[in-house]
From TrEMBL:
UniProt entry keywords in alphabetical sequence: Nucleus, Repeat, TPR repeat
Name of the protein: Uncharacterized protein
Location of this chain's protein in the cell: Nucleus
Species assigned in the record: Conidiobolus coronatus (strain ATCC 28846 / CBS 209.66 / NRRL 28638)
Any one annotated GO CC term: nuclear replication fork
Length: 695
């Protein structure tokens, strides 16, 4: 639940010794169990065999394996699994549900260890067997455990992108609610039911997992109630491990609701429990606490938590991350005090002399950059220094890739000062500033640099905090008239908002050589703008025969007709030659391939279109005839329809019309199509002679 720092537990391998004298497969006790099992089995003494197998299973599960070498453990692990399968099959064949169910529990544990996963897909068949066996058992606790197992399986798989076929949160909720109901029923009906530690732990696990299901379903009140019940029970039983889990989950819940005060409060309670009772998870709790401190903009808590984390056994990457965060916190504090005074220094006149006298020395540029960093009390960036050292090396081709450096406005100011030097044009043709703390002030610094405007060809500003207002201010300022060289611009993962069309049109006007614009997973509002404002934007003849690729991958669309109008206006202003709409998400019933295709056919300059991984909402109607559409996109040479849910009848007519109306051969990708056999028959019928269909 939530974005806790992942902790990988390497089972056994790190704790096992290299001793070779403790293999349980060679002990006399194991040999006796094995011999006795074979004797009962061969003599068909099934009642004795069942009783002996139950004892044998307990013996195998209780063995202390810590003194074994890893090689011995692997051997024993495989042998034990064979025995588990025998016990399972024996219990199933002889209608001994208890032996079968206990064997299945051990098999599930085997898969967990083998795959280092809570629930392996291989264990599902045994979980279903467990459910059937539990119904036959006289002990109702097995039915509780069966529902707990299945609910937990579907919950864990809902968080695993690799197992899409098992991602069903509704099943997780159904099974876990049933487990909770059955458990309470046992408590009500059986006064002699012993609420021992095992049953208490079982109930805690049900409540925690059910709380997580409610949380993922955004039923926050129910989730909170479930976690609070765990906390109350854990307090009354001095169960500090589950008390820790309850606090941790409530902390994540309140963080999601952006109630950071309560989130930090419960995180502190978790931290206190871990410290007082020496529980595991201290480092994980500290990372969560640091994340909350950053989100709540509590700089003092950020710095104190970083100090606590530095006392842990961190690896090099983690320590570097902590150092970066500490520097950022210090920079923000300095900026908040008085940004305008940061750069006042007597050394500025020396830097000016360096700039004026420099004729191509990376040493002078490095010195000036180091001066700026010293004045700003920031740590010089090694990537910047490496780039500076390569500037005048004819054999080097290092572009300034500063993605994910955690830069703030002070870092950008230091970097932009470098661009005042006469540096080679090729050294800054591609500038990657993605995943940094770029705000409106930073983007102003970048665009005010003449070198950026004159030399840069590719600019990546994805995953930053640039606002629509800032973009429009810069685009309207007239200060970007020198920006004729920019060819690629990445604004993915931004929130452009209601003025998206105006921003895009302005970008196309200012950056006249733009060949590629990426707006992937950008929160574009296609609905709230007036189309009449854009009637005067006429087709620009200077764009004819110019390449222009537009990417809108993964955007959410509430009104598809408005999005198509939006695309029409852009295409009329600057013809789109390559368009990528893959993974577009839309729940509107008007989101059909036919409605989208009506726009595509009018794009006379379109060469490539990717509409893969799109789920169209409505079934195709026979009166929507593709043959009636005008077909102006004669330059089309590639179409991607992979992993879509298009009905075969509609796809068949579309392909036939393409084959008739296209003058040149086109490649069509239809990978992962549901009706693959019918499509193959259509291809073999020679009805699509000039289409190169790739499946």
């Amino acid at each position: 639940m939530g974005k806790r720092k992942k902790v990988v537990y390497t089972l056994r391998k790190q704790t096992l010794s290299t001793s070779s004298s403790s293999n349980p497969l060679t002990t006399s006790e194991y040999k006796d169990y094995e011999t006795q099992f074979n004797y009962y089995y061969e003599s068909a003494q099934y009642s004795e065999l069942i009783d002996h197998s139950s004892k044998f299973l307990v013996y195998l599960n209780d063995l202390d394996l810590q003194k074994m070498s890893f090689e011995e453990y692997e051997e024993f692990f495989k042998v034990k699994f064979k025995w588990l399968l025998k016990f399972f099959q024996l219990g199933k064949e002889r209608d001994c549900s208890e032996l079968m169910l206990n064997a299945i529990e051990s098999i599930i544990e085997y898969y967990q260890i083998r795959d280092n996963s809570d629930y392996s897909p291989d264990s599902l068949i045994y979980l279903m067997e467990y459910e059937e066996g539990a119904e036959l058992s006289e002990n109702p606790i097995y039915s509780v455990k069966a529902n707990k197992y299945l609910g937990s399986f579907y919950l864990m798989k809902s968080q695993d992108p690799k197992d899409k076929q098992f991602q069903d949160l509704s099943k997780a909720k159904k099974y876990l609610q049933e487990a909770r109901t059955q458990f309470r029923k046992i408590l009500d009906e059986r006064n002699h039911f012993k609420f021992n530690n095992f049953n208490l732990e079982l109930f805690h696990e049900i409540l925690i997992n059910l709380g997580i299901v409610y949380f993922k379903s955004k039923q926050f009140t129910l989730a909170e109630d479930s976690f609070n019940l765990v906390i109350d029970m854990a307090k009354s039983n001095n169960d500090y491990e589950n008390l820790k889990k309850g606090y941790a989950n409530l902390s994540i819940l309140y963080s999601t609701k952006k109630d950071y005060r309560k989130a930090i409060e419960y995180c502190e309670l978790e931290f206190k429990i871990i410290n007082e009772h020496e529980l595991e998870g201290l480092e994980v709790a500290l990372w969560v606490k640091l994340d909350l401190a950053i989100k709540s903009k509590n700089l003092e808590l950020v710095q104190s938590t970083c100090r606590e984390l530095s006392n842990q056994s961190l690896n090099q990457d983690e320590q570097e991350e902590i150092d970066t965060i500490v520097n950022q916190a210090r920079q923000v504090q300095m900026f908040n005090r008085n940004f305008s005074d940061v750069f006042e220094s007597e050394a500025e006149s020396d830097d000016l002399e360096l700039i004026e006298s420099n004729t191509g020395s990376s040493e002078d540029i490095s010195q000036m950059y180091l001066n700026k960093c010293a004045m700003s009390s920031i740590t010089p960036n090694s990537s910047v220094l490496n780039w500076i050292s390569s500037l005048f090396d004819k054999n080097a081709d290092i572009q300034p890739n500063f993605s994910g450096q955690g830069w703030s406005c002070i870092d950008f100011s230091a970097f932009c000062s470098i661009l005042e030097f006469p540096i080679p044009e090729s050294s800054i043709s591609n500038l990657n500033l993605s995943r940094n703390f770029i705000d409106d002030h930073c983007i102003k610094l970048i665009f005010e640099s003449s070198k950026v405007l004159e030399l840069i060809k590719s600019l990546d500003l994805s995953c930053t905090q640039i606002s629509t207002k800032s973009l429009l201010t810069l685009l309207n300022s007239g200060g970007l008239l020198n920006s004729k060289s920019l060819e690629e611009l990445n604004l993915s993962y931004l929130k452009i908002g209601n003025q998206s069309l105006l921003v895009i049109i302005k970008i196309l006007v200012v950056f006249s050589k733009l060949r590629e614009l990426r707006l992937n997973y950008t929160r574009i509002n296609f609905d709230e703008f007036k189309f009449n404002d854009y009637i005067n934007f006429q087709f620009n003849s200077t764009f004819i025969n110019k390449e222009f690729k537009l990417e809108l991958i993964g955007n959410k669309v509430s009104n598809p007709s408005n999005m198509i109008k939006w695309l029409n206006i852009i295409n009329n202003f600057k013809p789109i030659t390559r368009l990528n709409l893959s993974f577009i998400k839309c729940n509107s019933t008007s989101w059909t391939l036919f409605n989208l295709w009506k726009f595509i056919t009018k794009c006379a300059h379109l060469k490539q279109i990717d509409i893969s991984n799109i789920k169209f909402q409505s079934d195709w109607l026979i009166d929507e005839d593709y043959s009636n559409l005008e077909f102006e996109c004669q330059q089309l040479n590639q179409l991607d329809l992979s992993h879509s849910n298009i009905k075969f009848q509609e796809l068949s007519q579309l392909l036939k019309e393409l084959s008739k109306k296209l003058m040149s051969r086109v490649s069509i990708y239809i990978v992962g199509y549901k009706y693959e056999d019918q499509l193959k028959e259509l291809i073999n019928s020679q009805a699509l002679s000039n289409l190169n269909i790739i499946m």
